[in-house]
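The material for today's practical consists of a large collection of protein records. Read left to right, the backbone structure tokens trace the chain's path through space. An example says more than a description, so a record of this kind follows:
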Amino acid sequence: MKLFLILGGTMSFLFVAIGAFGAHALAERLEANGYTATFETGVQYHMIHALALVAVAILTQHLSSNGLLHGAGWAFFTGIIIFSGSLYALSLTGIRVLGAITPIGGVAFLTGWVLLIIAAFME
């Protein structure tokens, strides 16, 4: 589906931009506050799931379980926004309560992978 390719490309662009911004412009601030690893975790999961969105776009052209694949794509996208987004926000603001929503994004990632597995089994 074209939409997931667009989302995957956009999310991939953003993970490169955010990662570079964190490594260069924010490095001292993140280090001083002890949030470098938190920020890097957000970037790492962002990258993996941006590529998963591209994979979903490709798979929709080859598998018939498009409903499950669409669900997986939306779950990956939601996970990026909630999981990585909350880690970015926590790293930049130090507001610890933001870490409480991070697991919701993790559940979204897990849901996406389960839907992808089911889609493969349905073939």
In short: Residues 2-121 form one domain. The chain has one domain: 2-121.
